[in-house]
Specification:
Elements: H1 2-25, H2 35-52, H3 60-93
Helix pairs in contact: 1-3, 2-3
């Protein structure tokens, strides 16, 4: 359980940093910072779909469900940080 929580925190830090870098380099194109979140969301939905199918490999459905949850955390992180950079931080700077 501790490893899973640590890996979730690591995903949050990595995707937050990636969103910050994309926001810094593409200020005029606001949609660019959301691309990693969209990709993580697609990956999560794909893994969730595969976890619901019958698997011939033992515990592969559990692994895919965990990957779907981790991808969901990554997508939520990107969308939340992107929202902060687009709407909250500019209001605080005024």
């Amino acid at each position: 359980m501790n490893r899973y929580v640590f890996s979730l925190l690591l995903i949050i830090v990595i995707f937050s940093f990636m969103t910050k870098l994309l926001n810094k380099h593409f200020k005029e194109k606001k949609y660019v910072k959301y691309i990693p979140g969209i990709l993580a969301l697609i990956f999560g939905v794909y893994n969730y779909y595969l976890s619901q199918q019958e698997s011939t490999v033992a515990f592969m459905d559990l692994v895919r469900a965990l990957l779907a949850m981790m991808s969901g955390v990554a997508a939520f992180t990107v969308f939340f940080i992107g929202f902060l950079y687009d709407y909250i931080i500019p209001k605080l700077k005024r």
